[in-house]
Amino acid sequence: MIAFDPTPEQDALRARIETFVMDKIAPYEKDPRNTAHGPTEELRIELNGLARDAGLFTPHVPERWGGMGLDHVSMAIAFEACGLSPLGPIAMHCAAPDEGNMNLLDKVATEAQKERWLKPFAAGDFRSCFSMTEPWGAGADPSAMKTKARYDGDDFVVNGIKWLITGAKGAGFTIIFCDVEADGDKPGGPTMLISDMDAPGIELSRELDTLDSSFTNGHWEVTFNDLRIPAQNVLGEVGEGFRYVQVRLAPARLTHCMRWLGGTVRAQRIALDYARKREAFGKPIGRHGEIGAMLAENEMELQQCRLMVWWACALLDKGEHGRHESSMVKTSVSEALFRVADRCVQVLGGMGVTGDTVVEQIFRETRAFRIYDGPSEVHKWAISRRIMKNG
């Protein structure tokens, strides 16, 4: 039996985070350091300090590494509250790609790797990036990966280009998804390697102008040119990369849903407030049937999204959740949240397409969400393959 009523402790956590985000973090949305390419490193560090002082840093990280150690349902509630501002996840150090990388390191890394990277990473000493997507190769289809690694003594030498690498500028390290070439009795196949970002052979080739603007230092194209990585920096085992991708991506799809759910809740609140105050044809616009219906549809879809996320998180906490459930939730929620954000823009009218409210940014962010972590069409294809097999 899955209960959908938050506990008193979860309600208190939600209220605490919501108050923190709206009172302390949301005012920074107009800070000049919050740029078209996301918040700067300086702003990120300042916001981290506020969250740390409030005792709301890394809610997803096990207590062993200094986090709050929340279960997945509690995380869903906390992440929705922190997502009320695009800067909330940055402040609480639970934004992508960092949150997913922390989870991956905690589950797959060796103890030495955890001490070397996870411990200072979880403390906020630096950020990370995840180098998987390629301009003409791996992305929605990781099997098309063109980035290669070859053996050279006790090292791997990596060559290739990655693209849309979130937060690459200023990151402390990266996890690289590449194809290792087998050599004699040495195994090959899809593999994850860890490298410091200041290592020789890593070049930030190009900063990308993108629709969204909520990730620290934006998105980059990264070139690996004879990047040398020691064998002890293999994450997990050589050839097991596809398995570890699912370890990372299945829960990360859900945390994306949690954060952007918070954003669209904020957009709905702004639209509701506007609809109560703005008058047209003799009454508040929310009293007109067309506008009222859009706001009602938003309320229904927001609650449906919340219940889907909580359902998937409850399964995760029971150890029963897999990538197919996360595909269904990510697809349904991303499409629904975009509809909600779109209606909020429409309710606001001319104001909705300006930067006078955060709704314009939330609309852009939710549009990008339909592509990140797998476009809806790829998830639907994967779901259809599964259900066709079960017939």
UniProtKB/TrEMBL annotation:
Acyl-CoA dehydrogenase/oxidase N-terminal domain ranges (all copies): 7-125
Highest rank taxon of the organism: Bacteria
Keywords: FAD, Flavoprotein, Oxidoreductase
A single GO molecular function term of this UniProt record: (R)-benzylsuccinyl-CoA dehydrogenase activity
Residues in Acyl-CoA dehydrogenase/oxidase C-terminal domain copies: 239-387
Keyword Flavoprotein: yes
Cellular component, GO annotation: cytoplasm
EC number, UniProt record: 1.3.8.3
GO terms (BP aspect): fatty acid beta-oxidation using acyl-CoA dehydrogenase
Cofactor: FAD
Residues annotated as domain Acyl-CoA oxidase/dehydrogenase middle: 129-226
Family: Belongs to the acyl-CoA dehydrogenase family.
Annotated protein name in UniProt: (R)-benzylsuccinyl-CoA dehydrogenase
UniProt source species: Thalassovita gelatinovora
Taxonomic classification: Bacteria, Pseudomonadati, Pseudomonadota, Alphaproteobacteria, Rhodobacterales
